[in-house]
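Record ATP synthase subunit b, 156 aa.
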Amino acid sequence: MDINATLIGQGLTFFVFILVTMKFVWPNIQKAMAEREQKIADGLAAAEKGKQELEQAEERSQELVNDGKQKASDIIAQAQKRGDEMIEEAKSEARTEADRVKASAQAEIDQEIATAREKLKTEVAALAIAGAEQILMREVDKSAHNEVLDKVCAKL
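=>
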């Protein structure tokens, strides 16, 4: 294989091509690659930052949910406690009212018993007088007998 002018011309052309490429094209390619590398690095950093912010937001949201659940359970406990207090108050008021009604009814019953006793005393006295009148019809002194009967009625 002989080295001839064509091969030398092609070598020189290739060398000039490489020099032109290194002088004018290669810096632009390097610059574009550096920019692209920087964009990729920025994107990865932003993604990592976004991931961390997402994790922090999830933690905060979980804390808020837990706080909300705690507050809800506290409110429910307070409502239950207040409900129990209201029930106890109602029971107490009902007992008081029942005692008052019972006392009122007992007083009414006692009054009716006293009234019935007085009526019975009066009726027994009337019957005793009627019986005594029939037995003692012949005696003239009714006032003396009435005194005796009044004393008997008082004892009854």
